[in-house]
Design brief:
By secondary structure, the chain is α/β, with parallel strands linked by helices. The protein is about 50% helix and about 15% strand. A hairpin with a 2-residue loop joins β6 and β7. Bound molecules: manganese (II) ion.
């Protein structure tokens, strides 16, 4: 094991031998990589963005296998390791490790004891487990701030987005950043998606949140989202499960928070569920005091008590598949909450 300061010295001394694998879906993931870039000036094409599916872990594995780094440092940020993914993660870490690289893993999601025990074996530095105070970007910043506080605005902004601390004053900025990332993830795929996310990360690394690229991408999102929110408003429906009212809607190209907020506002739900028909992602949000994460875990996902997600390996869902999924969500929720 190494200390944070040693990691900082290692990667700032050798930015060209530093690699970042980070979460694709939100500002915490992008911000974590941006903080590393802020201090190291590492090349942007050394960043790889993934979600929480087996395919994602395998694509990161192919990326690393092609590069074959040795004597380098690979930092995972904001990536949750659930038990379903564990065998794929272990294989990836095994390969990185066998080439004499250093591995750091910085996360704030709940992990199982098995995941912690097994992944720890492969890591030189590991911060993991549910963290009620800090998101991944803040944990990354705490390590990197040996080099000063130049990335503080990134860490602070990530905290506000990840803990959903929107206010009248900051929501313009938070929504813009979150929705820009949503737009890139939904409208690009493969190497195009990587290119756009790296570009965004480069901009964010300079704390330039009012950048033209971000503003224009957000504008494009807004145009699309207006149409998509109208459709969601039409299809969202609610189910009474035990003492909770659960709202479920479907659609695509909408930021999860916006989609779930619409479902909650329309149907006065305790738990709101959004099914993304293109990616197959299922997102859960719940009122304070209601823990929605067990449903996500039942679908092989993970998350926090009030914000969780799962990504069953199905894409481009048709209406029958959406209906079947809704029935399955209600059935699973009944077994969790009914009493
Ligand atoms: Mn996060």
């Amino acid at each position: 094991m190494i200390e944070g300061e040693e990691l900082y010295r290692l990667i700032t001394a050798k930015p060209e031998m530093t690699y970042s694998i980070t979460h694709t879906a939100d500002f915490d993931g992008v911000g974590s990589a941006a903080i590393i870039v802020n201090y190291t000036k590492m090349p942007l094409d050394h960043i790889f963005f993934i979600g929480y599916t087996k395919e994602d872990i395998e694509s990161a594995h192919r990326w690393i296998s092609d590069i074959r780094p040795s004597g380098s440092t690979v930092i995972f940020t904001d990536i949750s390791a659930n038990d379903t993914l564990l065998p794929y993660i272990i294989r990836l870490l095994g390969e990185i490790r066998s080439n004499g690289n250093t591995i750091a893993w910085i996360d704030h999601h709940p992990w199982s004891d098995t995941a912690i025990k097994e992944i720890r074996e492969y890591c030189d530095l590991i911060i993991c487990g549910e963290n009620e105070k800090y998101c991944a970007a803040e944990l990354t910043y705490q390590i990197m701030s040996y080099g000063g506080n130049s990335a503080e605005p990134i860490a602070k902004t990530a905290h506000l987005t990840d803990f959903n601390l929107r206010t009248e004053k900051n929501k313009g900025l938070l929504d813009k950043l979150a929705c820009t990332i949503t737009f890139i993830n939904h409208n690009y795929s493969g190497s195009d998606r990587m290119r756009e996310l790296r570009r965004m990360t480069g901009i964010v690394s300079g704390c330039d949140f009012d950048n033209e690229f971000i503003n224009e991408t957000f504008e494009a999102y807004t145009v699309e989202a207006e149409r998509n929110l109208v459709l969601l408003n039409q299809n969202a429906e609610s189910f009474q499960v035990g003492r909770y009212r659960i709202g479920i809607g479907y659609g695509k190209n909408i930021h999860t928070n916006a989609a779930c907020a619409l479902i909650q506002d329309k149907l006065d739900t305790d738990i709101s569920v959004m099914i993304f028909t293109d990616t197959g992602q299922i997102s859960f949000r719940s009122r304070k005091g209601v823990d929605c994460s067990p449903i996500a875990r039942a679908f092989g996902g993970n998350g926090h008590p009030n914000a969780a997600g799962a990504n069953p390996e199905r894409h481009n869902l048709g209406i029958e598949e959406v209906d079947a999924l809704k029935r399955e969500i209600v059935r699973i929720a009944s077994s969790i909450y009914a009493m």
